[in-house]
Structures are given as C-alpha cells and as structure tokens.
Design a protein that fits this description.
Blueprint (H helix, E strand, L loop, with lengths): L1 H15 L2 H8 L3 H13 L3 H5 L2 E9 L7 E2 L1 H7 L11 E10 L2 E9 L11 E7 L2 E7 L4
Parallel strand pairs: 1-6
Antiparallel strand pairs: 1-2, 3-4, 4-5, 5-6
Helix pairs in contact: 2-3
C-alpha cells in the first residue's frame, strides 16, 4: 500500500507541473528547453530561467547596442529587472522554428508601460546538452 501511495504522489506532482517546468533539468529537446526558459521569464523567475542556460552561455545583441552577456552571473544581473516589472510583462511567441539544436522565436512583448517602446524581438537560441549555450538577437528593422 505504501508503494501505491508513493506512485500516486509522484503522479500528482508530475501532472501539476507543466512539461516545460521539467525541461531544463530533464529534457535535452531544444524546443522544450527554450519554452521552459520563456515560461520562467514570463513568471519573472530569474533563478528558474538561469537554470535553462549553460554555465558559459553567451547572449549577443547583433545590433551592437548592448555588450554581450557572458555566463550565468551576468545573465542574472541583466535580467534582475524582471523582479521589478508589472506582472503583466511577458514575451509571447508569435512564430517558432526549430532546426536541430537551433530554435528561432519571433516574440511580442506585452505589459510594457505606455511610455516605453514595445519590442518584437527575434531570438535565435542554440541548445546543447539540454542547456541554452548561445543566444543571438538580430537587429530589428
């Protein structure tokens, strides 16, 4: 009976968690890893988001307007602003393409204050060994 109860508890916990919540630690599928990172971003959970990235991650704004982000500490520092934005602030995927380890998202940012620009970035993710290793943001227009 004890074994049956354990199975029920494990099943209940697993059904309450979205698949993407498990992806960063349990899946090497690039699309699931990127979705888990986006879900954490939208929940403003920098720790969970950082768990989706490789220790030596590099994030590059190809427009050259921002310096590259290298490593988890720099990633956490850069995205610390998420703790201060309205709960409605989020990025929604408009279009997603997956080709092997590469995931390309066209995103639409919502919940941005009226006096701020509303970016619609394109993000190119490279996923290796279940972690995001590189991200490139091509210039918009």
């Amino acid at each position: 009976m004890l074994q049956f109860n354990r199975i029920i508890v494990v099943f209940a916990v697993c059904t309450l968690l979205p698949l993407s919540a498990l992806a960063c630690g349990k899946s090497s599928d690039p699309e699931q890893v990127v979705q888990a990172q986006l879900d954490a971003y939208n929940k403003h959970d920098v720790e969970a988001m950082a768990a989706c990235y490789a220790d030596d991650v590099t994030i590059v704004d190809l427009s050259g307007k921002r310096p590259p982000i290298k490593g988890i500490p720099a990633l956490k520092e850069t995205y610390a602003f998420l703790a201060k934005v309205p709960k409605t602030f989020a990025a929604k995927v408009v279009t997603r393409m997956v080709n092997g380890p590469i995931v390309i998202d066209r995103e639409h940012v919502i919940g941005v204050p009226e006096d701020k620009s509303k970016p619609d970035p394109i993000a190119v993710y490279e996923v290796r060994d279940g972690k995001i290793l590189n991200v490139w943001f091509p210039p918009s227009k």
